[in-house]
Amino acid sequence: MEALREAEAELTVYVHPSNAADVRRAVSRQLSTTLFSYEDRFEGVLLAHEVVVNGDRAKILNGLVPYFGVPVHANLLLYSPQPDMILEGKVELLGKESIHAIVLGVFSAAIMADDINEKFKFKRKGDGGKFISRSDRHHVIRKGSMIRFSVKRVDTEMNCHITGSLLPPHTGSMPWLSTHDAEYASEISSGTRRPSNVGIKIKNEQDHKTSDNEDSVINSERPHKKSRKRALEE
Amino acid sequence: MGAELRRDDMEVAEEDISDSQAFRFVEHVLQSVRMDPFQVDLRDKEEYDSLLSIVDSSKKRSYDDEALLVTTLKALSEAVSKIDIMYHHALLNNIFTMSIWYLNSDTRDALLSLITRLAAVADQFLRECLQMLVNNFTPPGSLTAFIGQPRWLARKKEIYSQLHESLRMISDTVPLAPRMLKDIIDRSMPKLFDNKAKMVSFVECMLGLDNDRMGDLIGALLLAKVVDLLTELDVNITWEDILQDEHNKGIFDMELEDLGEDEDSLGQEGTKALFGGNACAEKLDSLMVVFCEHLKSCKEHGRLPQEFDILKTIFRASVLRVHKSKFAQFIMFYACSLDPEICGLEFALFLSDIFIKKEEDSISRMSAVSYVGSYLSRARFISADTVVGILKRLVDWCVDYCDLQNNIRITTKPINHQIFYASCQAVMYILCFRLRSIMDYPNLKAQLFNMPFGYILTHPLEPLKVCLPSIVDEFLRQAKAARLFNASVHSEFEDALESDLSKTFGGMNRLDMFFPFDPYLLKESDRYMRPNFEYWSMVKTTYNNYNSDVDDELVDLDAPEMNVGSLDDHVEIDLNSDDDLEYSMNKMSITPNRSFFHQIMANSDTGLTMPARIRPSVSPPS
After folding, report:
1. Of these four, A63, B220, B363, B515, which has the most CB atoms within 10 Å of its CB?
2. Is residue A198 in a domain?
């Protein structure tokens, strides 16, 4: 899927001395605290990480608690949806005014009435209801269907909530598209999805910016945090 | 659902508007004010204001108003995409400040479904929605007085289940919502000085959430929060409070509760009216009831083992080292009693593991061994083999320790060997309670008699001189009667009682007198603990075979005749002639003697060597 990408990052992870016995574990744990929440410096949500600790030297931080900064090379799997990307999700709840889908089982997406193609007509039935296409009554979206939709807006504030749209072409119920939409069908059969931008390097420059103005904030706000991750200062 | 809709239709029909018309109207109003306030048409503004007045959190409603509200809420949930955080701020504010406690069942449904819809729309509403639901965990202030009435109990259950359902729906559509909910619950937790009704209903609702599927996601946090609250309340109950409430009644009433029936002065009043004036104790009491009920329901749904695992971790982190806690630890006791074979055993092993691990800090280890001692002594549901098994572990550890000390030069300061003394004391304490019952099983008896008690107790570290004299005394009495050691060992013990050393090994915190499962003194929740709790007054000792359920005066008279089955009646009479029954019971409790607070009386007491200070007055740094 488009929104998933791998990235390599050079990070400095600050480890509390009490965790010095097992640095790898401490580093992983620290990175794991950022899982599933939107991280500005990654421009996305961290889904998985693989860590290689570079060498056996670490810089000790001046201060009351001598945290030490471990240089780390990390391979990250990120979820970073951008507007106009095509995503796939499972419909969890729908009503006349909206369709709510879940992407990758974790992230929520909402498609509002304005963004649902006019060709879809909502039919109330039992609990829930369904959207039926006026042009082809086999094209149905109901609870549990897998749909393709395009990203309209991404709310990066907390949970990376997506506002989606079913207006662009090649969107709708996936089973229907696979037989009726030539482009999607060929995409599946050739096995090549749109090239995802693999291998974007997250380098220090970007981290540097955030670290400069964030450091002091992090320090004062969360003085008890066991270890904190920050960018290299050099 | 269908029926509801029809009813609404009828209500609104009086004004000649159908449901769908009303829905369109609301949508139109929302749309028309979605612009800069200066540009809004005055008529639209009025309509919006009337919408606001319908959805007003503070208004009292007639039946008609309520029906109108239902329709409006339904219309709003059909139009959530039109609601804008900028331009409909007042409306959102009204929605989020509504209290569902005053509403009818239909209205509640409509409001909650609006909330779940709003939560699913975008991140910006999610926090407010969750906060609104969490705020409704507790009834509004004016209702708290009536909440205990039966009429409200059913309604309360209904409201809780609706709240849980809504939260579940939200977590279905926004899978990451529980993370935020965790935060919000954390921040909305009742504080120490909140009133009791609020606290109880919040915790009740919160634990109800744990039963749900939500429990898998944030159950551990919910439990941890509740346990923290219990502990916090607990440490705020001081022994002074207990004693003042007690007036001149003996503090050992609970231990002597069987005598209570015969003696007026120590009667029901004394036991039942404990903690009359202490707010913290009352709160804790009610919360314990809620928590025990929760554990019970876990047991019924087969979730106890998972729950117990979580509880163990929480206990380790936030209760074990809090020596000032007196009652909060009983949640573990109760959880164990619900499932003695698995949880009960697991808890004993868990504690002894902590004790034996070298990596643990010494305070944790000492607390753990005190817990083992107290737990095995008091838990009636623990079988004699488990007791012997754990005893074996403790004794083996002591033997290793003694061997180690033989090899290196011994430093005599008890404080350096506090863990050793604590474990010796725990072993003796357990045996005081359990020796007699172990003797009934020949195989266990054989195992017990193979343990090298003589070696440990006569070791140059002299545990008998350092441990609490009352326990040592009682232990020696029973051991003698049971012939646990041979005669030569006995003679060395004769002068072992009472020395200056005996108060020193526990250090500042008096860990030497830490017996976490002492009689439970909270009256409401007592019913959960009592059936499984071993009171000293009911313990059968090796030297005395009858149940000591008798008046003081009778003891001396009855003792010789009654102890036919006793193992060594000669010793029994000798010892018993000195102390009265109460003394021997008192010794098994660490509940402080009044003399601590009335120093003058201390001297007049007849040779009672109760500890000067029982509980640490400050909890150790954690």
Report:
1. B515
2. no
User: What are B87-99's pLDDT values in tens digits?
Assistant: 888 888 888 988 8
Whether residues A47 and A126 share a domain: the answer is: no
The secondary structure element, H or E, covering residue B362 is: helix B362-378
List B residues 151-190 in contact with A (Cβ-Cβ < 8 A).
Answer: 169, 172-177, 179-180
Residues listed for chain A: 234
In a domain, A76, yes or no: yes
Distance between CA atoms of residues A139 and A131, nearest Å = 8
Q: Residues B70-88: pLDDT tens digits?
A: 888 888 888 887 888 888 8
Q: Give the structural domain span for A17.
A: 4-80+203-230
| Cβ–Cβ pairs < 8 A, chains A and B | 66
Asked whether residue A126 falls in the same domain as residue A165, the answer is yes
Cβ distance B121 to A98 less than 8 Å, yes or no, reads yes
Same structural domain for residues A91 and A170?
Answer: yes
Q: Residue B78 is nearest to which of A97, A100, A102, comparing CB atoms?
A: A97
Tokens describing residue B140: 């509004």
Establish if B117 touches chain A: CB-CB under 8 angstroms: yes
User: Which residue, among B359, B356, B358, has the nearest Cα to B369 in the 3D structure?
Assistant: B356
A96 lies in the same domain as A164? yes
Q: How far apart are CA A89 and CA B379, in angstroms?
A: 53
Is the domain of A74 the same as that of A91? no
- Judged by a CB distance cut-off of 8 A, whether residue A108 touches chain B is yes
pTM of the model: 0.76
Point out the residues of chain B with pLDDT beneath 70: 1-17, 59, 123, 239-277, 409-412, 414, 486-512, 544-622
The verdict on a CB contact (< 8 Å) between A112 and B120 is no
Structure tokens at B467: 């441990």
User: In this structure, is residue A56 part of a structural domain?
Assistant: yes
Q: Is A37 in Cβ contact with B81 (below 8 Å)?
A: no
ipTM over 0.85: no
